[in-house]
Amino acid sequence: MGGKGQAAVVSRCPCCGYRTGCVTCPVCFWTDPAQADPGAFVAVGGPNGDLTLSEAKLNFALYGASHPKYRDVVRKPRPEEIV
Ligand SMILES: [Zn+2]
């Protein structure tokens, strides 16, 4: 192909939008229910408790984390996760 081959395509976090590709995002601490339990997409009562994705997005905008209790454990996105 001739392009930069080292960067694998990593899925974006549905909450913060960074390409962390983790089940639990280190940037916002959202846990992707689809990745955590493929085939059983549960929006409520899953690994995020009763937190919905829209609430998590709002929390991320306000606190920099999907829930205020995660403010101290999240980290800044890395340059390769922002693209
Ligand atoms: Zn995230």
UniProtKB/TrEMBL annotation:
The superkingdom of the source organism is Bacteria
**InterPro entries under this entry?**
Cys_rich_CPCC
Pfam families to which the protein is assigned, alphabetical? Cys_rich_CPCC (PF14206)
List residues of the Cysteine-rich CPCC domain.
12-81
What's this protein's name? CPCC family cysteine-rich protein
